[in-house]
Amino acid sequence: MILLRLRTLAAALLILAGFSGGIAHAGDKREAPIVVELFTSQGCSSCPPADALLHEWSRDPGVLVLSLHVDYWDYLGWKDTLSRPGHVKRQQAYARSTGSRQIYTPQAVIDGQYQVVGSNRAALKEAMQAARKDMRLALDVQRKPDGLPVAVKLPASANWIGEAVVWLCLFDRKRDVIIERGENTGRSITYVNVARSWQKLGLWDGGPVEIVLPDLADYDWHGSNGAILLQSTRGPILGVAELGHR
């Protein structure tokens, strides 16, 4: 189910190359995992293969996958039980970064800048290979002695020009859903790393900063996880750190 395929990967790389300029320099690292966001829906018949592919990549420690469920297919007979309204806005922002006015499922966005059909294994691998060549800023998660994350330190980057948002994304590690109506009637699907909340913690303009995290003492770390994403207001993800309380 595709409203409109976005521009080819090659074209997207050309368009977005300028967004990541000025971030790589001495001291930057590529230790953080690649971030793969899959915009998906329980009401989309084309989405299960992409959901299964995301499940495969979730086993790779060098990849952070996130399932972002959208609600614009709810009218087909089944309301997505995991959707969040903010996910549509996030997907629309990615579409605007490539000059598109339309969105679709399943769509995978890699590191906030490479956009491909989420069920296309070859295109996804190509985008991930491109993302691995990009440099990242190292985010330092500060923890209590018991491992509870309490703050994140962002380093300075002398070459950075612009503004970036510091996001806290909390997600469920696994959700099993039996779909009772709509295009996927009768299917039981396991979704991984289901994004359930996004919180804007602050802004970064290239200088060193420490941001205190909200109190996560009562968070279910066994069934859930969290990540800090440093993301340019123009799209690309500049740094990421999983919280993974142990």
Mean pLDDT comes to: 87
CATH class: Alpha Beta
Beta-strand content bin: 25-35%
Total of DSSP H or I helical runs spanning 4+ residues: 4
CA-based gyration radius: 18 Å
CATH topological fold name: Glutaredoxin
Identify the quaternary structure here.
single chain
**Could you give the order of strands across the largest sheet?**
2-1-3-4
Return the string of H and E elements: HEHEHEEHEEEEEEE
- In the CATH classification, which architecture applies? 3-Layer(aba) Sandwich
Describe the 3D structure.
The chain is of the alpha+beta class. It has one domain (9-242): Glutaredoxin (3-Layer(aba) Sandwich). 17% of the residues lie in helices and 34% in strands. It has 4 helices and 11 strands, in the order αβαβαββαβββββββ. It has helices at residues 9-16, 48-57, 85-97, 121-132, and strands at 34-40, 63-69, 107-110, 114-117, 140-143, 149-154, 164-178, 188-204, 209-212, 224-232, 237-242. The chain has a 4-stranded mixed beta sheet with strand order 2-1-3-4, with helices on both faces. Strands 8-7-10-11 form a 4-stranded antiparallel beta sheet, with helices on one face. It has a 3-stranded antiparallel beta sheet with strand order 5-6-9, with no helix packed on it. Strand 10 and strand 11 (237-242) form a beta hairpin. The chain starts with 8 loop residues before the first helix and ends with a strand. 36% of the residues are buried. Mean pLDDT is 87; it is low at 1-28.
